[in-house]
TrEMBL record:
InterPro entries: ORC3, ORC3_ins, ORC3_N, ORC_WH_C
Lineage: Eukaryota, Fungi, Dikarya, Ascomycota, Taphrinomycotina
Organism (species): Pneumocystis carinii (strain B80)
Name of this protein: Origin recognition complex subunit 3
Family under the similarity heading: Belongs to the ORC3 family.
One Pfam family cited in the UniProt record for this chain: ORC3_N
PANTHER family in alphabetical order: ORIGIN RECOGNITION COMPLEX SUBUNIT 3
Keywords carried by this UniProt record: DNA replication, DNA-binding, Nucleus, Phosphoprotein
GO biological process: DNA replication initiation
Amino acid sequence: MKDQVINEACYMLLPKDIKSKKKHIYSKTQDELTSKCQEIYSEESSKYEECYFPCLMHGRETELSRDYRYMCFRIQSNQLKNDINELFETIHDNMIVSLSVFIEQNKHWKEENEIPTCILLLGAYFFDHIGLYTCIEAQLNANIYGPLINLHVRRTPDMKACFKQIIETCIQFGRQRNSDISTEENPEKRQWSIYCEYDPECVVKWYEEAILQGLINQDEFRLVIFLQEVEGFDGNFINHFITILKKMHERVPLLLFIGISTSVEIFQDILEKKSLKALNIKYFNTKYLNDSPDIAIQKILVSSKHPRLRLGSYLYDILFDMYQKHSFNIASFLSAIKFAMMSHFFSNPISIVNYCDSAHSELISHDHLECIRSLPSIKRFTEDLLDKGDIYSAESLLNDDYYFRNIINTLIHDIEEHNRKLDVSISFLNIIQGKYASSVRKKSLSWIYGKLLENNIQQNLDTILNPIKIMSSIDILQFIQEALTLKDIYDQFPDLEGFYKKIFDIVESSEHKNLIDISDNEINASNKTEEISNKANSELNDDVINSEFYNIRNSLYQYLQEIFRKYFVSPMTYPLHELYYFNYSRAYLDAFHPRIRAAIDTALSLPSHYLSCNYEVGDKENEDNLSIPSLPKICISYRLFLESGFLINVSDWLTAFIQSASKGNDKDDKQDSEEYLQAEFLQSLEELRYLGFIKPTKRKTDHVAKISWMR
């Protein structure tokens, strides 16, 4: 057990890419069935190689239901993967667009003393370095004429390895150009010099030779060097490397990209002044960190094209709290959504209910209905029926399967319709919050979504709708025009377009009146009395127009408040919400944030959970006996450790250990010798110190102290 940390194992089942066809496919409609078959399965593909899901409900689940549950998981998993890729593209868009301008400006050779340098500020908590680097490489390959060299500390840790990579990439680029020209023009075979692998001068020699042989265009050529995660390189190496590149740039046109994962200050502290002067730096930052959770929620949960399992209130609160205090990135959100989907389909037999065309499907058996009846939301629904005095409906729900299947169809339709309206309302509120100029008063989408799950959104509705009270007529027109682009907005907010027309008429009449007033003032400028009279009439008309606008704005505020109070009810209060919202936070925490202290204590106290030994859990006689030979010696030391105080005398600990470990064995046994047991004790003592249970103390030289968190 030395140099090992005992922990609980976690297994995750990841789906393979869908390349096979299944005979039995059930979907909500025949159109969806056809589209799924065309999109995911092909006529030439074979059947599933193997279904990795077990038959649940103590084996009473049919193989057909199990296979369909597995198929639903694979479909949803691939759809989630596509949405996550779109999320990454959205987050990368701002930097890629800015980089395209920089690349366009520096793609051609210029007489310049400094090396054009692009600094990519990713930040310590940026979660998709590889994806962003891939997008940047694709952008460079599409717009830059020349080789692209990626340097990372794992592959190129020193100067020799870096220039070996640079020279090999340049020679490969030259050979590719040579083969292209040879196939087109069929010239004589070109002779290439043999280059040294580590000499920077070889790069210059290759460049000059390639120009002489007509392989590259000198005006368009750029040698692009991409230093990824520059903090991994040594500071002296970076300065020396930039000095060499500065000398090369006088003869070879270079373009330098540097990825920073920490901060600019740390990078500037690494570089010397002469290195900074050699670079013409342009900074490009990723999207502001606080916007990342809002983008993820908008793309994955709210505006996704594929309705799927979502996070419940408990799990969402835990993830949001971890984001604010620890992780500062959305990787935890994405991993939680993946885990929720895997756990939901793997261990929940009723996960197929809302994916069937009807609750009367042959896939849903009587055992499935009994599992649904045991859900907490269905139990509350039954109790509500009893409270209302509808005893017949409650009794039929519990005893009549056909009646219960009809109820399930109705409940599924209600919660799906409610989720659709919630998505529109959340997007609408997000547009309203975007009108705040100050980020202090603005409520983020992640905050709104959390309050909605907790069913506390209505208490904060006045605060959320406050921007409408301070909007001007032009701002309200822009806001309504943006809101009307949302999907299904006319069904949920039918009078919104009417408010837009009323305010638009007011703005139009106000502009027309101002033009008339200007022309009248020019005509009657000579008459002072008429000028004063016209000014008073103009102010009176302005007051009338403003009063009319204020009334319409207040009516719009009250209308939106009424609609939101109607629809903003937490979906966690609906029956059968367990089919749509994964709320088992303990399962997620055990898988991604295991209780290490409890795992170590269990392993040392009850080793039979982890090891093959004769120690039987629950046997009181064995539990009280410290001299079981099959127990590891560290477990005996740990049992004695638990019985000791804050300061432990090592000599007394050794004596008790020898008595416990040698009891019941023959004296002639080698393992019972005092020297051997003393060595075992010292090893177990060191293992306990390594695991963080004890530490040396200066108070007494022959004692050790317990660590505070284990007291």
